[in-house]
Design goal:
The protein has twelve helices and nine strands. Strand 2, helix 2 and strand 3 form a beta-alpha-beta unit. It is globular, with a radius of gyration of 19 Å. 36% of the residues are buried.
């Protein structure tokens, strides 16, 4: 397994793989890898000749505050895990190599899709995401790029960017990986204390309960959404950022629950913000 930090060297290596007729799978990450990330790597390994994993905590997708500084990092640990998973290369650039002095180019997907959910609570976040992902695509030249369903809005926006800008690649979504008790795996889970960790189980629990309500015939968006909010608000440690129900394919508003929908949650537990979601077909 090779580790690259210079974008031009990573790009040249990927060009050589392409010249040999090999397909490239890219797994973009911010590092501090867990089983959720490794599920993406395994799917890339299954479907592609070459697996490249990027490890880069992208500063331009963070809002003002300490979250960027506090984001956990451990490249040595990540490298050990990726070696075991038989990844072929790690791209771990520096901030200066990705955004050198004078850098002033950005990629942005506009419209309703980026204005809701995380886009509403984290202004500028998705411009940072689409900018760095487009750079990773140009550097690593993937045929397939793998993203987790936990970040459903992000995956949807990147799919839109790929379509609009004619990137010659396909996006593959991989299902959410959860702990045995149902909590979705996240690099931010390490910041939860024991009480907050227990409280966070409300996320998966309320998604299942909402799914049961819908399966039982409830089609009123307001009723299901209100049930979700009341259930989360009943947990003292939880503070809702959003709890919404939209069309899954474009985050459009719903008059009633029908077709393919997404129930999307973002909730604070102390200073840690966790997201989760569930796709439901009605």
């Amino acid at each position: 397994m090779q580790i690259f930090s210079a974008p031009n060297e990573m790009q040249q290596w990927c060009l050589e793989q392409k010249k040999q007729g090999k397909s490239i799978g890219l797994v973009p990450t911010m590092g501090y890898l867990h089983e959720g990330h490794l599920a993406l790597v395994r799917e890339a390994r299954r479907r592609c000749d070459i697996v490249v994993v990027s490890v880069f905590v992208n500063p331009i997708q963070f809002n003002v505050g300490q979250d960027f500084e506090d984001y956990p990092r451990n490249l040595e640990h990540d490298s050990d895990l990726l070696e075991k998973e038989q990844a072929d290369a790690i791209f771990a650039p520096t901030i200066k190599s990705m955004y050198p002095p004078g850098y002033n180019s950005f990629v942005e997907v506009l419209g309703e899709m980026t204005e809701k959910l995380c886009g509403a609570s984290r202004p500028g976040h998705f411009r940072g995401v689409t900018t760095v992902v487009s750079k990773l695509f140009h550097v690593c030249l993937p045929d397939l790029a793998f993203f987790g369903q936990k970040d459903a809005q992000q995956a949807l926006i990147i799919e839109k960017m790929v379509q609009d800008l004619n990137f010659p690649l396909s996006i593959v979504r991989v299902p959410i990986v959860r702990e045995s008790d149902g909590l979705a795996l996240s690099s931010r889970n390490v910041h939860l204390d024991a009480e907050q960790r227990q409280a966070a189980l409300v996320l998966n629990r309320v998604l299942k309960e909402a799914d049961s309500l819908i399966a039982g015939g409830e089609k009123d968006v307001t009723i299901v959404r209100s049930y979700i909010r009341r259930s989360i608000e009943a947990v003292p440690q939880a503070r809702i950022d959003y709890a919404e129900i939209y069309r899954a394919d474009d985050l459009g508003d719903l008059e009633k629950i029908e077709g393919r929908i997404i129930i999307a949650l973002a909730v604070w537990f102390g200073t840690t913000r966790l997201i989760d979601n569930l796709l439901v077909e009605v």
